[in-house]
Amino acid sequence: MTFDFLGWGASDKPAGYPYTAANQVGDLDAVIEQLKLEQVVLVAHDASGPPAIDWALAHPDRVAALVLLNTYYSAMPTLRPPEAIWLFSQPRVRAVARFVSTLFHNFVFRKMYWWQVGGFMRDAEVSAELLPLLYHQFAVTPSAQTDFFSLNEDLPSTVQDRARMLQQMKAFGRPVRIIFGAKDRYLNTGVAQRFHELFPTSDLFLISDANHFVQIDEPEEVAHLLLSLPLADHA
Question: In the chain, which ranges are E strands?
């Protein structure tokens, strides 16, 4: 099952709502509770890493397994923000970046998005097909742009704050499978290795020819790794 966090995709985009990683934990919890899911396998990619890991650490007895696909959580030595994310997250430049990005009816924002996200996929033909679908949430009204700006503003504090969770990560006893595209320059193999060190029950798979969207570049291999995932016994 997949769902869109508030502010993203087809979900509601309430004005004035604080789009933060902490509130996304609440979104995730609301979905799990509404569906009455007793045991869950959480699969996190990119910005869904912090809410998924936060929820897993808070409810280990309800986590059958945790899967991490080219994601982030806390500050790590090799973690590198993509250029567009850096522009919209750094306090000294983000206001200017927002202003420039909205010039000419968001022409600059669109160009930046297509350049950045287009580089996250290995195959040009696949990228050309999927980019319009991914960008659609920013082109419609209401747009996901407010959520994008807000989540990026929250990013530095999110990464810094999660340093306090390292001991809980080391004590997490549920299966963790780390599947990273090795060609991702930002959420890279060093990040994957660090996750592997922090989660003692984890296994690590680096897919050599895949980029940031590992599930798009190598769908069959990722599907096999998901279906072969060992699950924890019920608490």
Answer: 40-46, 63-71, 176-181, 202-207
Q: Dump pLDDT digits (tens) for 102-126.
A: 877 789 999 999 999 999 999 999 9
In a domain, 220, yes or no: yes
* Cβ(92)–Cβ(162) below 8 Å: no
pTM: 0.95
- Residue 68: CATH number of its domain: 3.40.50.1820
DSSP assignment letter at 60: G
Rounded Cα distance, 75 and 110, in Å: 29
C-beta separation of 82 from 213 below 8 A:
no
Query: How many structural domains compose the chain?
Result: 1
Q: Return the exposure string of 113-151: e unless at least 16 CB atoms fall within 10 Å of the residue's CB, then b.
A: bbeebeebbbeeeebeebbeebbebeeeeeebbbbbbbb
Residue 214's domain spans which residues? 21-227
Q: Which two tokens stand for residue 16?
A: 């004035």
Give the pLDDT confidence of 47-85 residue by residue, as tens digits. Answer: 999 999 999 999 999 999 999 999 999 999 999 999 999
Give residue 213's Cα distance to chain centre. 10
Before 142, cis peptide (omega within 30)?
yes
- How far from chain centre, in Å, is Cα 140? 22
